[in-house]
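Example 3.2
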Amino acid sequence: MKTKTINGGRYYEVDESNGIYLPSVTTIIGAMTDKSALNKWRKDIGEENADKVSQFSANRGTFMHTLHEQYLNFLYVTPVDNPLQMTFKEALLLSKDLSKEEIECGKNLFLQFQHNSDFYDRIGSILYQEVPVWSFLGGGYAGRLDLSILSRDNKPKVIDFKTSKKPKKEDWIKGYKLQTAAYSVAMWEIYGIFPHSTEIWISCETGDVQMFEMNKSQIKQNFEEFLELVKGYHQKINEQIQINNSNALLG
Protein backbone atom coordinates (compact mmCIF):
# COMPACT_ATOMS: atom_id res chain seq x y z
CA MET A 1 0.00 0.00 0.00
CA LYS A 2 1.48 3.32 -1.10
CA THR A 3 2.07 6.14 1.35
CA LYS A 4 2.62 9.85 0.95
CA THR A 5 2.79 12.92 3.13
CA ILE A 6 -0.40 15.00 3.25
CA ASN A 7 -1.13 17.80 5.71
CA GLY A 8 2.20 17.03 7.39
CA GLY A 9 1.23 13.43 8.18
CA ARG A 10 1.59 9.96 6.66
CA TYR A 11 -1.38 8.82 4.55
CA TYR A 12 -2.05 5.39 3.02
CA GLU A 13 -3.60 4.87 -0.42
CA VAL A 14 -6.56 2.56 0.27
CA ASP A 15 -8.24 2.86 -3.14
CA GLU A 16 -5.80 3.13 -6.03
CA SER A 17 -8.43 3.45 -8.76
CA ASN A 18 -10.02 6.46 -7.08
CA GLY A 19 -6.88 7.83 -5.44
CA ILE A 20 -8.31 7.69 -1.92
CA TYR A 21 -5.81 8.24 0.90
CA LEU A 22 -6.48 7.92 4.63
CA PRO A 23 -4.33 9.20 7.51
CA SER A 24 -2.29 6.64 9.41
CA VAL A 25 -3.25 5.58 12.90
CA THR A 26 0.01 6.93 14.30
CA THR A 27 -0.45 10.25 12.49
CA ILE A 28 -3.87 10.69 14.10
CA ILE A 29 -2.68 9.71 17.57
CA GLY A 30 0.38 11.94 17.28
CA ALA A 31 -1.67 14.94 16.18
CA MET A 32 -4.51 14.55 18.67
CA THR A 33 -2.82 13.54 21.94
CA ASP A 34 -0.70 15.43 24.45
CA LYS A 35 2.94 15.78 23.33
CA SER A 36 4.15 18.00 26.17
CA ALA A 37 6.46 15.34 27.62
CA LEU A 38 7.96 14.65 24.19
CA ASN A 39 8.40 18.34 23.48
CA LYS A 40 10.10 18.84 26.85
CA TRP A 41 12.49 15.96 26.14
CA ARG A 42 13.37 17.40 22.74
CA LYS A 43 14.00 20.81 24.29
CA ASP A 44 16.12 19.34 27.08
CA ILE A 45 18.51 17.44 24.80
CA GLY A 46 18.30 19.71 21.76
CA GLU A 47 16.50 19.24 18.46
CA GLU A 48 19.52 17.82 16.62
CA ASN A 49 20.23 15.19 19.27
CA ALA A 50 16.53 14.37 19.55
CA ASP A 51 16.35 13.76 15.79
CA LYS A 52 19.36 11.44 15.96
CA VAL A 53 17.93 9.45 18.88
CA SER A 54 14.52 9.20 17.22
CA GLN A 55 16.02 8.06 13.91
CA PHE A 56 18.16 5.42 15.63
CA SER A 57 15.14 4.16 17.58
CA ALA A 58 13.03 3.98 14.43
CA ASN A 59 15.72 2.14 12.45
CA ARG A 60 16.54 -0.44 15.11
CA GLY A 61 12.81 -0.99 15.52
CA THR A 62 12.42 -1.48 11.77
CA PHE A 63 15.17 -4.10 11.77
CA MET A 64 13.58 -5.93 14.70
CA HIS A 65 10.24 -5.98 12.86
CA THR A 66 11.94 -7.27 9.71
CA LEU A 67 13.51 -10.11 11.69
CA HIS A 68 10.17 -11.06 13.23
CA GLU A 69 8.46 -11.05 9.85
CA GLN A 70 11.12 -13.19 8.17
CA TYR A 71 11.38 -15.61 11.09
CA LEU A 72 7.64 -16.19 11.27
CA ASN A 73 7.54 -16.71 7.51
CA PHE A 74 10.28 -19.34 7.74
CA LEU A 75 8.52 -21.03 10.67
CA TYR A 76 4.91 -21.06 9.48
CA VAL A 77 4.46 -19.88 5.87
CA THR A 78 7.34 -21.40 3.93
CA PRO A 79 9.12 -23.59 6.52
CA VAL A 80 12.88 -24.15 6.15
CA ASP A 81 15.40 -26.29 8.03
CA ASN A 82 17.37 -23.36 9.48
CA PRO A 83 14.80 -20.59 10.08
CA LEU A 84 16.97 -18.38 12.28
CA GLN A 85 19.93 -18.49 9.89
CA MET A 86 17.71 -17.72 6.91
CA THR A 87 16.02 -14.94 8.87
CA PHE A 88 19.24 -13.00 9.42
CA LYS A 89 20.32 -13.55 5.82
CA GLU A 90 17.08 -12.19 4.37
CA ALA A 91 16.76 -9.35 6.88
CA LEU A 92 20.26 -8.08 6.13
CA LEU A 93 19.48 -8.04 2.40
CA LEU A 94 16.39 -5.93 3.13
CA SER A 95 18.21 -3.53 5.46
CA LYS A 96 21.26 -2.34 3.55
CA ASP A 97 20.75 1.31 4.48
CA LEU A 98 20.95 0.73 8.23
CA SER A 99 24.11 1.24 10.28
CA LYS A 100 25.93 -1.59 12.03
CA GLU A 101 24.84 -0.19 15.39
CA GLU A 102 21.18 -0.09 14.37
CA ILE A 103 21.35 -3.64 13.03
CA GLU A 104 23.11 -4.96 16.13
CA CYS A 105 20.62 -3.31 18.47
CA GLY A 106 17.62 -4.51 16.44
CA LYS A 107 19.05 -8.04 16.37
CA ASN A 108 19.46 -8.11 20.15
CA LEU A 109 15.93 -6.82 20.67
CA PHE A 110 14.60 -9.57 18.40
CA LEU A 111 16.61 -12.32 20.11
CA GLN A 112 15.20 -11.31 23.48
CA PHE A 113 11.84 -12.68 22.33
CA GLN A 114 13.63 -16.00 21.84
CA HIS A 115 15.48 -16.05 25.14
CA ASN A 116 13.48 -13.91 27.58
CA SER A 117 9.84 -14.66 26.72
CA ASP A 118 7.44 -17.43 25.74
CA PHE A 119 6.18 -15.44 22.74
CA TYR A 120 6.81 -18.02 20.03
CA ASP A 121 5.39 -20.83 22.17
CA ARG A 122 2.04 -19.02 22.22
CA ILE A 123 1.49 -19.19 18.45
CA GLY A 124 -0.74 -21.84 16.93
CA SER A 125 -0.77 -20.44 13.41
CA ILE A 126 -0.42 -17.16 11.52
CA LEU A 127 -3.53 -15.37 10.28
CA TYR A 128 -2.08 -12.15 8.84
CA GLN A 129 1.32 -10.54 8.93
CA GLU A 130 2.33 -7.02 7.82
CA VAL A 131 -1.00 -6.47 6.03
CA PRO A 132 -2.61 -3.08 5.36
CA VAL A 133 -5.87 -2.43 7.20
CA TRP A 134 -8.21 0.55 7.13
CA SER A 135 -11.65 1.81 8.06
CA PHE A 136 -13.82 4.72 6.95
CA LEU A 137 -15.35 5.12 10.42
CA GLY A 138 -15.14 8.65 11.78
CA GLY A 139 -13.73 9.94 8.50
CA GLY A 140 -11.25 7.11 8.05
CA TYR A 141 -7.86 5.83 9.10
CA ALA A 142 -5.34 3.26 7.88
CA GLY A 143 -2.28 1.37 9.02
CA ARG A 144 -0.22 -1.77 8.73
CA LEU A 145 -0.95 -4.65 11.10
CA ASP A 146 2.19 -6.24 12.54
CA LEU A 147 0.73 -9.67 13.20
CA SER A 148 -2.48 -11.57 13.81
CA ILE A 149 -2.35 -15.15 15.07
CA LEU A 150 -4.45 -18.04 16.25
CA SER A 151 -3.22 -18.98 19.69
CA ARG A 152 -2.64 -22.59 20.66
CA ASP A 153 -6.19 -22.67 22.05
CA ASN A 154 -7.48 -21.41 18.68
CA LYS A 155 -8.28 -17.81 19.67
CA PRO A 156 -7.55 -14.93 17.27
CA LYS A 157 -5.19 -12.26 18.57
CA VAL A 158 -3.74 -9.03 17.25
CA ILE A 159 -0.05 -8.59 18.09
CA ASP A 160 1.94 -5.36 18.01
CA PHE A 161 5.72 -5.26 18.47
CA LYS A 162 7.42 -2.30 20.11
CA THR A 163 10.94 -1.40 21.22
CA SER A 164 12.07 0.70 24.16
CA LYS A 165 15.22 1.77 25.95
CA LYS A 166 13.75 0.67 29.29
CA PRO A 167 10.60 -1.04 30.63
CA LYS A 168 7.38 0.94 30.47
CA LYS A 169 4.60 1.39 32.98
CA GLU A 170 1.16 0.54 31.67
CA ASP A 171 -0.08 4.11 31.96
CA TRP A 172 2.69 5.16 29.56
CA ILE A 173 1.39 3.07 26.65
CA LYS A 174 -2.07 4.52 26.06
CA GLY A 175 -1.12 5.31 22.46
CA TYR A 176 -0.17 1.68 21.86
CA LYS A 177 -3.55 0.55 23.17
CA LEU A 178 -5.39 2.97 20.92
CA GLN A 179 -3.31 1.76 17.97
CA THR A 180 -3.98 -1.96 18.49
CA ALA A 181 -7.68 -1.26 19.08
CA ALA A 182 -7.82 0.63 15.78
CA TYR A 183 -6.14 -2.26 13.94
CA SER A 184 -8.49 -4.75 15.59
CA VAL A 185 -11.63 -3.01 14.33
CA ALA A 186 -10.15 -2.49 10.86
CA MET A 187 -9.21 -6.19 10.68
CA TRP A 188 -12.75 -7.09 11.64
CA GLU A 189 -14.17 -4.83 8.89
CA ILE A 190 -11.87 -6.18 6.18
CA TYR A 191 -11.42 -9.83 7.14
CA GLY A 192 -14.46 -10.48 9.35
CA ILE A 193 -12.36 -11.52 12.37
CA PHE A 194 -12.52 -9.67 15.68
CA PRO A 195 -9.68 -10.62 18.03
CA HIS A 196 -10.30 -12.39 21.30
CA SER A 197 -7.55 -10.16 22.70
CA THR A 198 -4.60 -8.00 21.70
CA GLU A 199 -1.03 -8.27 22.93
CA ILE A 200 1.54 -5.47 22.92
CA TRP A 201 5.05 -6.94 23.13
CA ILE A 202 7.87 -4.58 24.07
CA SER A 203 11.55 -5.53 23.82
CA CYS A 204 13.77 -3.23 25.90
CA GLU A 205 17.45 -2.42 25.54
CA THR A 206 17.79 -3.32 29.23
CA GLY A 207 17.11 -6.97 28.31
CA ASP A 208 13.52 -6.98 29.54
CA VAL A 209 10.54 -8.16 27.50
CA GLN A 210 7.08 -6.91 28.45
CA MET A 211 3.61 -7.96 27.35
CA PHE A 212 0.43 -5.94 27.86
CA GLU A 213 -2.89 -7.56 26.97
CA MET A 214 -6.36 -6.20 26.23
CA ASN A 215 -9.56 -8.25 26.24
CA LYS A 216 -12.53 -7.58 23.95
CA SER A 217 -14.15 -5.14 26.33
CA GLN A 218 -10.93 -3.15 26.66
CA ILE A 219 -10.42 -3.19 22.88
CA LYS A 220 -13.89 -1.73 22.33
CA GLN A 221 -13.39 0.91 25.03
CA ASN A 222 -10.06 2.03 23.56
CA PHE A 223 -11.52 2.06 20.06
CA GLU A 224 -14.31 4.39 21.18
CA GLU A 225 -11.63 6.76 22.46
CA PHE A 226 -9.63 6.41 19.26
CA LEU A 227 -12.73 7.07 17.13
CA GLU A 228 -13.16 10.44 18.84
CA LEU A 229 -9.56 11.25 17.88
CA VAL A 230 -10.28 10.28 14.27
CA LYS A 231 -13.31 12.57 14.13
CA GLY A 232 -11.37 15.40 15.75
CA TYR A 233 -8.44 14.94 13.39
CA HIS A 234 -10.60 15.16 10.24
CA GLN A 235 -12.46 18.16 11.63
CA LYS A 236 -9.14 19.87 12.37
CA ILE A 237 -7.81 19.16 8.88
CA ASN A 238 -11.05 20.32 7.19
CA GLU A 239 -11.00 23.56 9.17
CA GLN A 240 -7.38 24.16 8.17
CA ILE A 241 -8.23 23.54 4.52
CA GLN A 242 -11.08 26.06 4.72
CA ILE A 243 -8.76 28.65 6.28
CA ASN A 244 -6.14 28.05 3.59
CA ASN A 245 -8.76 28.38 0.84
CA SER A 246 -10.08 31.59 2.35
CA ASN A 247 -6.58 33.04 2.60
CA ALA A 248 -5.91 32.07 -1.01
CA LEU A 249 -9.04 33.89 -2.16
CA LEU A 250 -8.20 36.97 -0.13
CA GLY A 251 -4.53 36.93 -1.12
